[in-house]
Amino acid sequence: MPSKPRGEDRAANEPTARKRSAPAKAAAGTGKRTAAGSKRGASKSGAAAAKGKQTAAGPAAAMGASAQGAHAAPHVHPDRLAELQAEYLARLREMMSGEQAGAPADRRFSGEAWQAGPFGWAANLYLLNAEFMRKLAESVDADPKTQERIRFATQQWVDAMSPANYLATNPEAQRKLLETRGESLMHGVRHMLEDLQKGRISHTDETVFEVGKNMATTPGSVVFRNELFELIQYAPTTAQVGKRPLLMVPPCINKYYILDLQPSNSLVAWAVSQGHTVFMLSWRNVDAAQGELGWDDYIEHGVIEAIRRAREIADADRINALGFCVGGTLLGTAAAVLAGRGERLIESMTLLTTFLDFSRPGTIGVFIDENFVAFRERTIGHGGIMPGRELATTFNFLRPNDLVWNYVVSKYLKGEDPPPFDLLYWNADSTNLPGPMFCWYLRHTYLQNELRIPGRLKVCGVPVDLGAIGLPTYIYGSREDHIVPWHGAYESTRLLSGQNRFVLGASGHIAGVINPPAPNKRSHWTSDALPEQADDWLAGATEHRGSWWPDWVQWLAQFNGGLRAAPASPGNAKHRPIELAPGSYVKKKAE
What we know:
- The chain is α/β, with parallel strands linked by helices.
- It has a domain at 220-587: Alpha/Beta hydrolase fold, catalytic domain (Rossmann fold, 3-Layer(aba) Sandwich).
- 42% of the residues lie in helices and 13% in strands.
- The chain contains 23 helices and 19 strands.
- Helix 7 runs antiparallel to helix 8, helix 8 (117-138) packs antiparallel against helix 9 and helix 11 (183-198) packs across helix 17.
């Protein structure tokens, strides 16, 4: 059986995380906004936090400011600099004398044309320079935030300067230019112009896919709609289903169908096949008309409304709920609001690659500081749209070699057509966010990390205490996740007071989650123990070949409330089907 976390232990070490003081209550944000009626300005919690920033951010922020003041300007110690210079010159002499043999050890230079001669030498020189630029960045003496930013900026520059990225220094692109008599360059220019018109690099042949035709095809019906979301109920494929339905809350960044790509890799279809009545919250791709919605709207009129409707349509006492990425953050907040109201509508939670504690924000953290958040609050915090295209570009540059330069080389320099890939089609199908909601999210999670502090924030008029949720929770992290590093996902085991189970999967943010059982790919790790530190958990965990999905569905079965005959039709007398899945909201483009 999964063991219970020690939220109380954390309280002993971090009083502000578990004890509600009067000043903390006074400084609590409200985030309150209404979907209709009164004027929607900047969130109250944002104003409260801006007015009393040090109080709202707590001791961690004060310590961070103190640490920054204690450091001198970023610098590299002269001894370390001399050591790097000597090592670099020695390696360079070896390479120039021919003592350093071998082909370039990098997949960008794996082709035959890179193996020897001037291009091979150029590739090896680049790799040597890149190695020492990274070492130099890692040697900078500065506060942790500055160090991380220097490393990130250096890596961006290093990746951009690869000789593979330029026609004049890429022998493979030059050879193709000659072999095709210039056609490859013509095709490359055409690809570049098409992408300039789109305002983004396209990663796949987007003409191959269409939502509702060969993407998001699990049969179902839209049974509820409001200004924020459509609720989809999927048709059963088993004679009996659990009495309690399963509601999936996807991220509001990108579209829901990451959980329903194609029949072979659809988590939705697989959950349905396991006897669950599955509901999906399909977020609206907002425009200017919804530009004043805030975090409270997404909680009250989004997640909580979907919980109520799914419960009502399924005629169940409670539901099981799953949240993915920011969808999990929204679900956790909604569960805390319901707990604060004394409403028990949820039987269990599943959180997939989700932050509740943002103390380990990963690479995204390099973008976020007070100046950045304040700028967003001034420009869109009182109303407006955060364009999905900007968010997509940011995420692409978290992995520039894979999602930027790889396509510069293959599409623009070599004129190649990108192959069809369902996941990359979804990745490009971005969504806009309301400015006030986006700003609240940035300030109170990534910047000030207040969601984890009991009573610090008010959402929908209710003080948020994640420790009061008290639900059995399945927490999943991906080992190579660069968006929600798994150590950060593990922190939820210390915040949530119910019976928790943590499972770690191989691969990254998306590929780790979308790992169906049939191919038997990758692996996952399990352990019933929940020690304080994530690395201690991994040291005691057992690795299993294949998908984590069977482990999850076995855990979930204990909360289905027993079996009953599958519903003969979607909806109920009050909520008639509106249209077939995937609905209308998911088809609206951000462009």
